[in-house]
Amino acid sequence: MISSITKSTLHLSSTKRFYVGKSFLRCLSGPPIIQEPVAQPINLVNEPILGYLKGSSERSLLEDALQHRQSTCEEIPIVIAGKEYWTDDVHYQTMPSNHQKKIAKFCYATPELLQKSISASLEARKSWEKVPLNKKVDIFLKAGDLVSTKYRSQLNASTMLGQGKTVFQAEIDAACELADFLRFNADFAQRLYDYQPVNVDPSIRNSVRHRGLEGFIAAVSPFNFTAIGGNLAYAPAIMGNVVLWKPSDTAMLSNYIVFRLMEESGIPSGVVNFVPAEGPTFGRAITTSPHLSAINFTGSVPTFHWLWMQVGQNVDRFRNLPRLVGECGGKNYHFVHSSANVEHVVNSTLRGAFEYSGQKCSACSRLYVPSSLWKQIKEGLVEGMKQMKIGPVTDFDTFTSSVIDERAYNRIASYIKHAEQAPHIEVIAGGHRDKSVGYFIHPTLLETKDPRDRVMVEEIFGPVLTAFVYDDNAVDETLELVDSSTSFALTGAVFAEDREFLAQAAERLKMSAGNFYINDKSTGAVVGQQPFGGGRLSGTNDKAGSPHYLLRWTSPQAIKQSFNHLTQFKYPHMEK
Ligand SMILES: NC(=O)c1ccc[n+]([C@@H]2O[C@H](COP(=O)([O-])OP(=O)(O)OC[C@H]3O[C@@H](n4cnc5c(N)ncnc54)[C@H](O)[C@@H]3O)[C@@H](O)[C@H]2O)c1
Ligand SMILES: N[C@@H](CCC=O)C(=O)O
């Protein structure tokens, strides 16, 4: 019976099997041909979040950087194999809180330049792939240190002004998360070698080595996280890949600083090419190249679907089947049980829904509250919203600022207008909006009687939270609604003190979120602590910030090295 066989018995029997043909073998020996990298120890500690209190040195450095960035319009080239290019298709990045203020000038790459960058990256691949892992690790550790020291204030200032983040939101993203991605990925890349295949026969050596993918990777990044741009472009690079990085128009300046900082850390020219471009022009260039090996995308569902379809339509062109990694939107929930701590629910929801004006893929945008707690929770939310300061990011008391651009403003405003007109929705607080100077939309709380209204189902990606009040006796039906009423499955949170309920909810909502929180808000995943990504329409769930993510960027090769010479081709049973 298999259960009675111990591991060592199995081992022994397979060893025996290897030795059966010994008489036909002449045993040789020698060192392995392919050497495995020797890991260097990395002290994995998340980058501490600095306080930026009045009078602190980090605050004065940041204030200088903010001043500098506000009085400059940085000219940002396309960079291919270390060479700078300009085209006539000129664009500007402006400040979301003051749309007349330009902070960067850049231009779109033409199809010809995109072809050039593909060729340049394939050329760079030849030598980059050969650079030993420990050298790559050194580069990434140096980059992590440059992020947390020399470039910290520049990264934060450009993220604040260009992407509309408050000081705290910029710090957890452009400084801490970016440094964490660089350092943790260096460690994760080394740890991939911890798995090696079984070696049971001393005359045979089995091993696995990690190669970069053959071809180039296209990294297409969103506006809302500087660190995500850096991770999309550089996590593949540490595995030996070459990358075309198309940054978002509205995160251009911070992403360019990341690109230059990585060069300073020692990434050779051409390994990552910085190619601002019009979205579909870039999409068509990469998906019609036979050398596309993967797309590393973060952004909205429609863009990812479009790219996926382009790859499908060109599938017979590719030398390797491209891997499609996409992290997309969410319709994230807070589900409150009648046993929950009200004060904690209120504060967590105010942060989860309204920090960075709800422009986190993980932002809470639907809230399920039992009728027994609604009055208290509603009062708490409204009171908190009254206390939130909405303004420019240069005012350090601002809780949240404007949304990213006019397109986002109009989209979010259309949901609020819908709510204002729908008979089954009440605007409880907020709703005020004004785009005359910046794209300001005040945090808005809605209450709907229809849990399947568009405001409860579609990603709004703005500071709009909708509450649905359920009957305390209808917990099961409401959990069913949470799970089934949207097509997304990114993040979600349950709040309760009743442990039995929490266990039940964790089971019932298992597939509803890639990142599931118990008594914590739906936002704020930390690299290495809460690996990130969702299922269903929310993405391919490759868990950025974990070792699993790096597996997408390697094409492992299994190697069997034999130390024997066969002395004949026949098998033992053929001996006579
Ligand atoms: N799941 C996650 O980890 C995660 C993280 C951040 C943001 N997001 C999602 O990203 C979205 C917000 O970001 P966004 O507004 O920048 O998204 P977006 O889809 O508009 O743009 C993302 C990137 O794709 C580019 N692009 C647009 N059309 C393209 C095309 N046809 N071909 C190639 N590239 C194209 C854009 O220029 C940008 O660089 C939200 O839906 C949010 O939920 C998800
Ligand atoms: N990692 C971030 C979300 C990134 C998406 O925008 C969080 O967990 O809040």
How is this structure best described in words?
The radius of gyration is 27 Å and the shape is globular. The strands form eight sheets. A seven-stranded mixed β-sheet has the order 15-18-19-14-13-21-22, with helices on both faces. Strand 16 (433-434) and strand 17 (440-441) form a beta hairpin. The protein has 17 helices and 25 strands. The protein has 576 residues and is α/β, with parallel strands linked by helices. It binds nicotinamide-adenine-dinucleotide (NAD) and 5-oxo-L-norvaline. Nicotinamide-adenine-dinucleotide (NAD) binds at residues 220-225, 228, 246, 248, 279-280, 282-283, 298-300, 303, 306-307, 327-330, 361, 459, 461, 490, 532, 538-539. The site of 5-oxo-L-norvaline (A1AUG) has 9 residues, from loops. One of its GO terms (molecular function) is L-glutamate gamma-semialdehyde dehydrogenase activity. Its EC number is 1.2.1.88.
Largest sheet: 7 strands, mixed
* Proportion of residues in helical segments: 25-40%
Query: Which cofactors or ions or other ligands sit in this model?
Result: nicotinamide-adenine-dinucleotide, 5-oxo-L-norvaline
Number of helices: 17
CATH topology of the largest domain: Aldehyde Dehydrogenase, Chain A, domain 1
**How would you describe the shape?**
globular
Counting DSSP E segments of at least 2 residues, the number of strands comes to: 25
Rounded Rg:
27 Å
User: Which second-level CATH architecture of the largest domain applies?
Assistant: 3-Layer(aba) Sandwich
CATH superfamily (homologous) name of the largest domain = Aldehyde Dehydrogenase, Chain A, domain 1
CATH class of the largest domain: Alpha Beta
The oligomeric status of these chains comes to single chain
Question: Beta-strand level of the residues, as a percent range?
Answer: 15-25%
pLDDT under 50 segments (min length 5)? 1-23
- The largest sheet has its strands arranged as 15-18-19-14-13-21-22
- Please report the distance between the alpha carbons of the first and last residues: 35 Å
